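Input for the complex:
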Amino acid sequence: MAHGAAAGHGAHAHGEHDPHPTGWKRWVYSTNHKDIGTMYIVLSMIAALLGGLMSWYIRLELAEPGIQFIEDTQFYNVLVTAHGFLMVFFVVMPAMIGGFGNWFVPLMVGAPDMAFPRMNNISFWLTAAGLVLLVMSAFVGGGPGTGWTVYPPLSSIAYHPDAAVDFGILALHVAGAGSILGAINFIVTILNMRSPGMTMHRMPLFAWSILITAFLLLLALPVLAGALTMLLTDRNFGTHFYDPAGGGDPLLWQHLFWFFGHPEVYIIILPAFGIVSQLVSTFSRKPVFGYLGMAYAMSAIGVVGFIVWAHHMYTTGLGVNARAYFTTATLIIAVPTGIKIFSWLATMWDGSIDFKAPMLYAIGFIFLFVVGGVTGVALANAGIDFALHDTYYVVAHFHYVMAIAAIFAMFGGYYYWVGKMTGRQYNEGLAKAQFWLFFIGVNLLFFPQHFLGLAGMPRRIPDYPDVYAGWNMVSSFGALLTMLGTFMFYFIVFHTMRSGKPAEANPWGEGATTLEWTVASPAPFHTHEVQPVISAGDHGHGGHGHGAHPRPAE
Amino acid sequence: MTTRILRSLIGGSLTGVGAVVAAGAAHASGMATPWQINLQDAASPVMERVHGFHNMLLVIQISIVVLVLGVLAYIIVRFNSKRNPDPSRTAHNTLLEIVWTAVPIVILVIIAIPSLKLLYYSDRAQDPDMTLKVTAHQWYWSYTYPDHGDFAFDSLPVAAEVLEAGQPRLLTVDNPIVLPIDTTVQVLVTTDDVIHNFAVPSLGLKTDATPGRVNETWVRISKEGTYYGMCSELCGVNHYYMPIQVKAVSKEQFAAWTQEAKEKFAARPAPAVAAAPAQSIQ
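Predicted:
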């Protein structure tokens, strides 16, 4: 499939001569999807350092029973809260959707840029403003010690009397508005700006994943925004949406929050599915197995994700028939996620697998997702949930299936695309060592938490009964390795920028068939001088993204 | 502190395996043991069924993980670029895709049937013999016995410095709940401030205490002993320090205790407010 590199040639011979603003104006005023994507990734790396340092401080406190470091337990709760907010809203979402999405969706579908470049700029700066507000919230009064779920009445004015929670609410409002605008941008770009021949059913799965994620954002975030607004008026203007004394109900918040919150976890993991599909296909040198099944499995996960929210609320006194429904609906999610796992395995089957660092991360992702997935099958059952709800079992489950899995996809995506983004290739040996350090670290960190949870250790506590000491120590040791692995990643980023070898247009060979590999590395400021036209592949099964043949229009 | 950790690490590694097999044989099984890797021992019919269901789930979970990782390992060994330089171009197999959609559905049905049975069984008590009312506060519990003279008392955590030998830290309270064994107890849970959660793992109890609501659950304790739990919903600065302790006694002992308790707690003034070692938010 050597046509890939050759085909793109003519399209951007002039890339170097693109006029564009320089200095700070290039970034602050940017309307370029690549520059904005880069800014999102930088933002994510800053937030990840903050959120990571918080989690390592938490694990340091939890290494031994008793309170050693965090005397002020309100501060402990603030750390737990901020860690969650940062990682969800300011690490994973910016990196995957804002970062890789901005960079590679236009490239993959053959669009010159995003549909609304100026809106793209405001999306980013709203997210950045949200991050600033969130960091400030920790320094206002006692900080928000509510957990990322912000349940009233703990989050009400009576129990958090200073403005910390208001800062947190506004942080999410602002970042949420940015995400909604970004979602609209992605939907319009993908639906309207595909190159001729790039039909929906030829579109790479990463673009599919971002499209579905954008729809989830568009439908879920307004619900959060409404719920947050009601909390804000409850706190400041004397309304009683969540206060039973005035006819409100704290459970209203929980329903609204989780109606957003459950799709939110798919917002985090769907782009990871997309990235992993690209990685598995590229490094197995095979088209994605069951491409249509994969695309529609993601769509199904997106749809079902909206009708399972109350499985986060099994112990709230929900009626037994409602719990039976939510149990059944939640179990159904295992079917499309199973299809994804089996399709990745089938893609690798009879492939010619090259175990480069991105592929190691893709395989690591599959491992984590399977382990986290089977504990999800347990947690789906309301009948057993009261043994597991609010214990470390849940912590282990969602870190495996969502948090660390997403980080694996991000690391894999970084190594996969860094050459395209910076023009410099990472060092393979360093990256592989970083993978193994991180992989062993996170498993040592989170696997023992299943045991702690089954044995009944609650979440969100700075001190625990002495019987839980053993596995907590193991877990904290894992956190230490994870920290070293993370720092090593930052070093590799630095090393790649400083002394990475120049990247070829396509460093991955014939397995990499998506359009971004047909343009030079780094991708020119303006990608397409001439619109590419995509025709169906010549392998008989083509027409599914990986069989697509890009060539410049006549 | 370090020596304690070392001791628990060494002691734990010796007893860890034994604990899984024979936990509860020695003394009251109402709390976890060092290096425990599974659920706490069951002391109520609900928790016994949870154990049964979880054991079934565990078999399914481990089978799926082993199957997937086995296939993954085979792929890594067999289809790496050295051993398999020419990749196939196969991207479809309708039969295979139908099978891997249908088989999980069958497994889910196998899970769902006992799951829903357990759910409906655990929901609420049939013909309860008595009622216990639980009220949560920041950061202690109070308990009312409406069927035995309607007496009520507060249950405050005991500070680590004044614990007696054998009393576990962060789990011991001054006035534990006392309940008779082999008696179906309806438990009503509410709160007078933020959301808390009334949880005792070995009894299969975990119910939110939500403002404006009274939630119902139930327990029938099968063995005498002491059972421990902790608040299981983030409720503020002392969330970690809000233990629940249940003392299960024979019916006779319980009858005697209620007589004593009626006098003891009737003499008390209305429940003290926030006597827990609270730290202010600021």
